[in-house]
Amino acid sequence: MSQLNTHFAKGLYGITPEWEDNSRLLTAIEEACRGGMRILQWRQKSLSAAESLTLALRAKEICHQYNCQFFINDSVQLALDCKADGIHIGRDDGSVAELRKACAEQGQNLLIGVSCYNKMELAKQAINDEVDYLAFGALFSSMVKPDAVSAPLALFAETKAYLRDSDMAANKAPALVGIGGIDQANAASVIHAGADSIAVISGLFESDDIQATAQYLSSLF
């Protein structure tokens, strides 16, 4: 199936929870897609490379049926092996230049997103690297990463001001993603602050009705 990767999609961005029940996970992904999720990040730290590839390919197939982009967390090799739409990297996952070199060697062109935590200097570096999106967080306390640094919502406005001042063309500017403890109660405040996309784990996949939650979060855009 072809990649959906000309531009980062924006909107609701789901991140897979660490569940051991694979069929439950795939069902949940489809429910979120039905509700309007635009991007899914595959983040499974406990699986072997072979297990992850098999499951990731199934998840990507579901996502693409619903026109939802499929990203891989951290692993460049997995992203290339399953021909994902994009990859998300943190500060310890190598440089954007190294990532682009690896993609070029495989004849692939992955969308690239980077974690900037709560640091404006990392955002400026990401902008300079011409990434497709940069993510700030944790915006709220998170069950998934309770020790994550706290990032203020003001970072979105600060980044948009920086982009305006740098005269970057609108089609070159990265999307801004908010992450960390986002749920139905606080999602609107993140979008109002300037986020183009909200990355949600527990607030989406641990909800009683995943499809309805995805519909509500998507309706905020």
Can you walk me through this structure?
It is a single chain. With 221 residues, the protein is α/β, with parallel strands linked by helices. The chain has one domain (11-219): TIM Barrel (Alpha-Beta Barrel), CATH 3.20.20.70. Helix content is 40%, strand content 17%. Strands 1-2-3-4-5-6-7-8 form an eight-stranded parallel barrel, surrounded by five helices. Helix 5 (120-128) crosses helix 6 (154-165). The protein starts with 10 loop residues before the first strand and ends with a helix. GO terms for molecular function: magnesium ion binding; thiamine-phosphate diphosphorylase activity. Pfam families: TMP-TENI. It is an enzyme of class 2 (transferase).
Descriptors for this entry?
221 residues, alpha/beta, TIM Barrel, 8-stranded parallel barrel, 9 helices, 8 strands, 40% helix
Runs in which pLDDT lies below 50 for 5 or more consecutive residues are none
Q: State the helicity in percent bands.
A: 25-40%
Strand content: 15-25%
The N- and C-terminal alpha carbons lie at a distance of 28 Å
At the fold tier of CATH, the topology name is: TIM Barrel
Backbone CA Rg: 16 Å
CATH class: Alpha Beta
Q: How many β-strands, per DSSP?
A: 8
Strand order of the largest sheet: 1-2-3-4-5-6-7-8
Largest sheet: 8 strands, parallel, barrel
CATH superfamily: Aldolase class I
Shape by Cα distribution: globular
Count of discrete structural domains: 1
| Mean residue pLDDT | 95
Please provide the ordered H/E string of secondary-structure elements: EHEHEHEHEHEHEHEHH
**What would you call the structural class?**
alpha/beta
The number of helical segments is 9
Just name the CATH architecture.
Alpha-Beta Barrel
Organism: Oligella ureolytica
Cofactor: Mg(2+)
Function: Condenses 4-methyl-5-(beta-hydroxyethyl)thiazole monophosphate (THZ-P) and 2-methyl-4-amino-5-hydroxymethyl pyrimidine pyrophosphate (HMP-PP) to form thiamine monophosphate (TMP).
Keywords: Magnesium, Metal-binding, Thiamine biosynthesis, Transferase
